[in-house]
Amino acid sequence: MVALSEEELGAARHRMVTEQLAPRGIKDARVLAAMERVPRHRFLPPEQWPVAYEDKPQPIGQGQTISQPYMVARMSELCALGGGERVLEIGAGSGYQTAVLAELVGGGEGKGEVWAVERLPALAERCEARMRELGYRNVKVAAFDGTLGWPEGAPWDAILCAAGAPRVPTLLLAQLAEGGRLIIPVGDREEQRLAVITRHGDEFETRWDTACRFVDLIGRYAWDGEEPVHN
Ligand code: SAH
């Protein structure tokens, strides 16, 4: 296998933005710029670099996947970040979405932070190592069940959950700041739809965005009162 050069990988990344994200309706210029900057291939082993910028999820081991570029961009856009926010990510996996969020909350006064939780310790460790290598200082990574949220860092301006749940975990809603948004795939195992839930005082407004298919959210509160599910 001939190793791809940084130029070739950069060109593939540029095509991902111009041929997948923009035509499919991603409009937030800061999201498009972040997707153009974050080296997606670095979140995959070198054998997978040739396919890193394809229009699909890729395996990252432990039965998990790095999300499709479009889903990362769309979920980031739905977080509506202008810089300086505090964001919780549940299901950090490879850390690719984490890096995109870190770019979006960064800059300015440097107040913005991303706290990323991943239930599988091996993935969380790798995610943390990537953040260090790539110089993201406004990110904190930990390994535990994210259906509990992360109360120490709440209230959150946005919570992005990258795993699918049968319904909205209510514990997470309580950790949203006023005007804060929870973005989460909700549905059955085969298909979900992105829910965008915004807090207005004690009221929560739900909008439904694109259809999607994510790996399962596995945890104590994923199934709200039902028995925990393990796969
Ligand atoms: N954004 C990631 C997506 C990884 S797939 C990326 O692009 O790489 C979703 C991840 O959610 C998996 O790594 C899975 O282990 C994790 N996950 C599932 N349930 C979880 C929970 N309750 N708490 C934290 N992480 C969870």
Protein described:
The chain is α/β, with parallel strands linked by helices. The chain has a domain at 55-212: 3-Layer(aba) Sandwich (Rossmann fold). Helices cover 27% and strands 25% of the residues. The chain has helices spanning 6-21, 29-37, 69-78, 96-105, 121-133, 170-173; strands at 58-61, 64-66, 86-90, 113-117, 139-142, 156-161, 176-187, 192-200, 203-212. α4 links the parallel β3 and β4. α1 runs antiparallel to α2 (29-37) and α2 (29-37) crosses α4. The site of S-adenosyl-L-homocysteine (SAH) has 25 residues, from β2 and α4.
Share of residues in helices: 25-40%
* Ligand roster: S-adenosyl-L-homocysteine
Mean pLDDT, nearest integer?
93
Q: In sequence order, what are the helices and strands, one letter per element?
A: HHEEHEHEHEEHEEE
Spatially, the strands of the biggest sheet line up as: 5-4-3-6-7-8-9
N-to-C terminal Cα separation, in Å?
35 Å
Q: Would you give the CATH topology of the domain at 55-212?
A: Rossmann fold
| C-alpha geometry | globular
Please state the CA-atom Rg, rounded to the nearest Å. Answer: 17 Å
What would CATH call the class of the domain at 55-212?
Answer: Alpha Beta
Relative strand content? 25-35%
CATH architecture of the domain at 55-212: 3-Layer(aba) Sandwich
